[in-house]
Amino acid sequence: MLLREMLEIYSPSGEEEEISNYLYARFRALGFHTYQDSVGNVIGIAGQGDKEVILLGHIDTVGGFLPVKQVEGQLYGRGAVDAKGPLAAFVAAAARVAPTANKRVVVIGAVEEETSSRGARALLSNFAPDYVVIGEPSGWEHITLGYKGRLLVRYRLSSRVKHSSAEGPSAAERAVEFWNRLIAYAGELNQGQRWHFHTLDPFLRRLTSTAGDMAEEVIMDITLRTPFPKAGDHKDRLYDVPALKERMRSWAGEAAVGFSGEDSPFKASKNTPLVRAFLKAIRSRGGDPLFKLKLGTSDLNTVGPVWKCPIIAYGPGDSTLDHTPEEHLDLDAYCRAIEILSQALTTLS
To answer: To 10 degrees, the CA torsion angle through 127, 130, 131, 135?
Structure first.
């Protein structure tokens, strides 16, 4: 089984070579035109025609291997939901549809989605698709249209070691003061916002403090989920990321504050042939389709603003299981997703 074999290959971000090679071989066996690009993305192309549909999944996962097992129709393993399940569904649907499709169906397993989106960024200038589906768990009968933005923040402070009885805050205390100030600022900005899609949400990922004989150092890693602007909202500073960066630098004092992993929030249109094809397919399988907006980020944030074509995120799986020790995928939902993808791709023909 394709999905199970993918799960058995442990592929945390930065260690995707084995699964990239595995998918390359599977694409070749299915008759796809196949290659691997300079960053390790694996690309399989099936069908011919003037129109191009990209099915963009990712082959990396977060760390933490989970034993692969099947229990009463549930398949457990790291990546079952996020996002080898959606990618395996892409491969199966493309293989089913390609022989009769009058379009190019491009299935891509991208690297480093869980960290820098390096794989997706490497694709931007190489493709100009007509339609794009991002492989992320939406649930088999739901469609994801948008994701919040992201900004990674690293706070670093080194100072001379002082006795615990000495006046003034320690390096660790100053780091906590910075965090508390950020939390208070976000709380002020978020007042009156009913939905988390429109809030600024800080998340403290790591706080470490080390002390030697002469110096102590504190490192703090923060993820900021930046909001999608709300129509009629006058709190413009909520969405002004450059201004927020300057505020954090001013709060940090002599500490160094660096920024990376910046993605703007993105919301796709729901009035497109792509969305209509998926709605029709979901309903034909007895589903009750809903549109979702997600609080995290995905490769949709990276490629959507550049490719400027109809785009959604879709795939089987319960996203609340992402990154957890209980990550698993319902196999009936997986099969339904393959059927829906196949029908939607055929409709787009």
So the answer is: -10
Rounded CA-CA distance 319/214 in Å is 46
Tell me which residue of 122, 121, 123, 179 sits closest to 153, measured CA to CA. 179
Radius of gyration over every alpha carbon of the chain, rounded to an integer in angstroms: 22
pLDDT, tens only, 216-244: 899 999 999 999 876 655 544 556 899 99
Q: Could you confirm whether 262 is annotated as catalytic?
A: no
Q: How far is CA 85 from CA 259, 277, 286, 315, 330, in A?
A: 32, 21, 21, 7, 10
Between vectors from CA 186 to CA 182 and to CA 191, what angle results, nearest 5°? 155
Retrieve residue 132's tokens. 């794009």
Q: Characterize 72-102 residue by residue with b for buried, 16 or more Cβ atoms within 10 angstroms of its Cβ, and e for exposed.
A: eeebbbbbbbbbbbbbbbbbbbbbbbbeebe
The answer to whether residue 333 scores a pLDDT higher than 90 is: yes
Contact 23, 42 (CB under 8 A): yes
Domain 2-147+265-348, CATH number (from 3.40.630.10, 3.30.70.100, 2.60.120.10, 3.40.50.300): 3.40.630.10
Active site residue 60: yes
Token pair listed for 259: 């920024």
Q: Which residue has the tokens 């320690």?
A: 170
What architecture is domain 149-263? 2-Layer Sandwich (3.30)
Q: Does 195 score more than 80 pLDDT?
A: yes
Please say whether the beta carbons of 317 and 329 come within 8 A: yes
Residue with tokens 């300079």: 38
CA distance 70 to 329: 9
Catalytic residue among 113, 114, 141, 327: 113
Return the amino acid letter for 139.
Answer: G
